[in-house]
Each structure stands twice: as structure tokens, then as C-alpha cells.
Amino acid sequence: MGVSTDRADLGVLLHRLLAVVVEREKALLAVRGLQMWDYVVLSGLENGAAPTQNQLALEVGRDKTRLIATLDRLQERGLVDRQPARHDRRNRVVALTDVGRSVLAECRADVRVMEQELLAPLGRQRRADLLRALDQAVVFTHGTS
């Protein structure tokens, strides 16, 4: 069975799409005074506090030494709270504040509108199919890596 060469590789396609999405997201986030990593960290805390900053770094894919500046910035704005962990006071539990949760929800709403506009040429059903397929691919690859 031959290998199809009638399209660009998946990595190339995703890279091109990601560049456009990130550029548009950065602009949306900047309106609220956030950087991309701020948004990634806030999103990483959406389902609950991180028991340690190191665990949060692993969860969001950010080097732990670079995460500190992001957390400092978010804490200064009142978007996250860091408290000493009960079991080990050298560690910090990181959690969204109510303000952080609200800002995240506002950003997420803006991002969803941008995504809808970006993918509008696909039509509603194809857009839904694409997003579902991407979600499934992420779940599948995350479980097998």
C-alpha cells in the first residue's frame, strides 16, 4: 500500500493552523492584560487547585523555573492564590481565585468566538466533526505516550 502525498503532513497542517490560532488568541488575551502562558496556567487550574507548583508545571508543560514569574504576575493581579501546602510547607498549593475564574471565563468566551469565526468556512457540522476528531486524537495520543 503506497503512502499518500496528496496533502501536507499533519505536523505542517497543525503548525500552520496553530500559528494563526495563537496569533489571534494573543491579541484577545492582551485586551485583558494576559499573556499566552497566563491563560494556559489559568486553564490548568480550572478543574481545581494544583497541590504543588511543580505538579502544575508538569500539567501545563511549562518549565518550573519559568512558571514562577507567571504565577507571580497572576498572583499580583489577584487571579491565583498560592498557599503553603499542609503536608510540606516548602511547597505551594496554587488555586484560581474568584476573579481568576471570572477572567478565565471571559477569555474562554472570546476564544470560542474567534474559533467559530476562524472555522466558519467549514460549516457547522464539519467544524464540530473537526473539533471532536482533534479532541479524540489528543485523548488517544495522551493515553498512549
Instruction: Work out the number of β strands.
Output: 2
**Order of strands across the main sheet:** 1-2
Oligomer: single chain
Beta-strand portion reads: 5-15%
Structural class call reads: mainly alpha
Any idea what the CATH superfamily is called?
Answer: Winged helix-like DNA-binding domain superfamily/Winged helix DNA-binding domain
CATH C-level label: Mainly Alpha
What string gives the helices and strands in order?
Answer: HHHHEEHH
**Taking Cα atoms only, what radius of gyration do you get, to the nearest Å?**
18 Å
CATH level-3 fold name: Arc Repressor Mutant, subunit A
SSE topology sketch:
Elements: H1 10-31, H2 36-44, H3 53-60, H4 64-76, E1 80-84, E2 92-96, H5 98-119, H6 124-144
Antiparallel strand pairs: 1-2
Describe what this molecule looks like in 3D.
This protein is mostly helical. It has a single domain (12-144), classed as Arc Repressor Mutant, subunit A (Orthogonal Bundle). Helices cover 66% and strands 7% of the residues. It contains 6 helices and 2 strands; from the N terminus they run H-H-H-H-E-E-H-H. The protein has helices at 10-31, 36-44, 53-60, 64-76, 98-119, 124-144; strands at 80-84, 92-96. A two-stranded antiparallel ribbon has the order 1-2. Helix 1 crosses helix 5. The radius of gyration is 18 Å and the shape is globular. The model has no long low-confidence stretch (mean pLDDT 92).
